[in-house]
Structures are given as structure tokens and as C-alpha cells.
């Protein structure tokens, strides 16, 4: 079948991992939560679901921040912001040019 690819269903699988991560996080199993959030992130990055990715990166960043892993938390937040600010998603135009030195 021509319409089926390896990425088909990635949004649903990513959503399932997100939910499993939320459940693990609520139970205090931060290791499992991080694994599920990272699996969801890996799946969703290929789909272009920018809002879902941003939300997932927020969840992962918050988890890492609570664990005291601030650099990793900032990386997760930046990843989410990067997907939200992808070309065509902002109305303010490109970033200003660097001033000449």
C-alpha cells in the first residue's frame, strides 16, 4: 500500500508515550517518565506536530528541573521553543541582523 510508511501512527504512538510518562511521573517514577517523554519526543519530531512537541518538551523540562538537572531542562525547553518558532509560525519576521563590528 502506497500510503503506509514507517512514520504512520507516530502521532498516536507519541501520544501514548506522553500519557505513560504522565502516569509514571504522577507515581513518582521519574526514570520511566523521562524514558516515555523521550520516546514520545523522538516519535513526534518527525510529524511536525509543533504544539504537541512544545507541550512534551515542557513536561520533560519540568521533570528534569525537579530532578535538579537544570542544563538538561533548559535544553528540553529550548527544543520545544525551537519547534514552536519554526519557519512560518511567527508573525514578527526573522530575527534582526547582527550589527556590524
Tell me the number of strands: 0
| Category from helices, strands and their pairing | mainly alpha
The CATH architecture can be named as Alpha Horseshoe
Radius of gyration: 16 Å
CATH top-level class: Mainly Alpha
User: How far apart lie the N and C ends?
Assistant: 57 Å
Largest sheet: none
What share of residues is helical?
55-70%
The structural domain count equals: 1
Runs with pLDDT <50, length 5+? none
Strand fraction? under 5%
CATH-defined superfamily = Tetratricopeptide repeat domain
Structure characterization notes:
The chain is mainly α and 101 residues long. The chain has a single domain, classed as Serine Threonine Protein Phosphatase 5, Tetratricopeptide repeat, CATH 1.25.40. 63% of the residues lie in helices and 0% in strands. It contains four helices and no strands. Helix 1 runs antiparallel to helix 2 (30-44), helix 1 (10-26) runs parallel beside helix 3 (50-66) and helix 2 packs antiparallel against helix 3 (50-66). It is flat. It starts with 9 loop residues before the first helix and ends in a 17-residue tail after the last helix. The mean pLDDT is 82.
Salient structural properties:
101 residues, mainly alpha, 4 helices, single chain, flat, Serine Threonine Protein Phosphatase 5, Tetratricopeptide repeat
Amino acid at each position: 500500500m502506497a500510503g503506509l510508511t514507517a512514520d504512520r501512527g507516530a502521532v498516536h504512538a507519541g501520544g501514548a508515550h506522553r500519557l505513560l510518562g504522565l502516569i509514571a511521573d504522577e507515581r513518582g517514577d521519574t526514570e520511566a517518565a523521562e524514558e516515555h517523554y523521550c520516546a514520545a519526543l523522538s516519535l513526534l519530531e518527525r510529524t511536525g506536530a509543533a504544539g504537541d512537541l512544545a507541550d512534551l518538551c515542557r513536561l520533560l523540562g519540568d521533570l528534569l528541573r525537579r530532578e535538579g538537572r537544570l542544563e538538561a531542562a533548559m535544553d528540553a525547553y529550548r527544543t520545544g521553543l525551537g519547534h514552536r518558532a519554526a519557519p512560518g509560525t511567527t508573525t514578527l519576521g526573522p530575527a534582526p541582523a547582527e550589527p556590524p563590528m
